[in-house]
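Write out the 3D structure for:
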Amino acid sequence: MINIETFKEISFRGRMAYGIRCFENALITLNYDLSSWNIVMEYLWEFTSSNNFEDCNLATAELIPENLLEFNEYDKDDIDRLTENEFFYLYNLYQKIDESINTVLTDIHWLGSSHAYSSITGYGKESIKSLEKLINTMIENNFPLPDPEPFLDFSIQEDEGWGNTFDGKELSIIF
C-alpha cells in the first residue's frame, strides 16, 4: 500500500511524473497497443519539462476522452493544442477504450490543475489531494501503482515546490 505522506517530499513535477506513470500502468494492464498512445504520452510528459503549466493543462483537458468525444469534427475555435490530425486520430482511438482510461486522464488533468494560478505552499496540499484521488482510481480499477522511490529525487524544495524541469520520458516504462 502506498503511503500518501511519501509524496509530501516530492515536487509538483515529480507528482505529475508519478501520475503519468500510473496512466502507463493502466494502459499496460488493459493490454492496449502502447504505440497507439504516443500522442497522449507526448503531451502528458510535457509537464515535467515545461515552464508553462497553463499550456500543459490546456492539452490535458483536450486529451480527456469525454471532452474530446463531445465534438464530431475539428473546430480550431474549440481546440487549442491538438492538431486536426491528432484530434481525429484520438477520436478514433477513444471509440473503443475502457471508461477507466477517461477517469485516469481526468484525474491527471485535475492533478495538473491543482495549483493553477496559485503558488505551492508547504507541501502542496491541493496536489496531494488530487494525487490521492488518482491513486484511489488506480486501486479501484485494479491497476498496479508505480513504486514512488524514483520520484523522491524530485524535491519539494526545488523551484518553490514546482521542482526543477527534467525529461520525464526517462522515467517512462513505455517510451
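The CA atoms of residues 34 and 104 lie 16 Å apart.
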